[in-house]
Amino acid sequence: MEIFGHLEKTVGFAPSWSFGGGTALMLQIDHRESHDIDIFLDDPQILPFLNPQIQDFAMTRRPDEYKTDGTQALKLAFDELGEIDFICSSAILDIASERHDVRGQIVDLETPAEIAAKKVYFRGWNLQPRDMFDLAAIAEHHGDDYLVSALRECGRERCQKALDVVEKVNPKAVETVIGQLLYRDRYSHLVTAAQAITHRILTESLSDKAEHVGSED
């Protein structure tokens, strides 16, 4: 990536980062189209060096919009192409990523388990229909136990907040939003089933059948 090339020239080293979010998940389970890119960094001091608006370095295409909170996140938006989000966040799981070739570049691609855990840990309080679809697709592709094990690492409090959202949101509203996603035909049944599957997974994550390693109680 051009931005990381500039960063390495500026600070003299290549930062540690991983590729996560919906597009990273798409590359692994091919459940829906996604064009936005989520890059996770473990050092917030790196963030200012990634902002082409501040650094004024050359890019093949300049972003059409910039958004940053200055410390934890930077969003670069490209009209008709998508967005790149740089997010300062540590991993949730012990094994959070694996080395993969993505379009000719070897990167740390976050596992579906890590992607799911981050959804619940960081934004479970505002879980969106798209997130429910992604969680349901992971459960279908890898099995319930795989996903439950990952979500238990988020702790009971965060799983409960996510479950509260799933229980309160209108099912028809969820179906309408999911129905607008560019999902693969083989996952079409999840348009109506995603909310129920997410509810089942989160409920199981809160059960006492296994030790909650990441419990916050």
UniProtKB/TrEMBL annotation:
Superkingdom as given in the UniProt entry: Bacteria
Pfam families: AbiEii
The protein's name in its UniProt record: Nucleotidyl transferase AbiEii/AbiGii toxin family protein
GO function terms (MF aspect): transferase activity
Keywords: Transferase
InterPro entries reported for this sequence: AbiEii
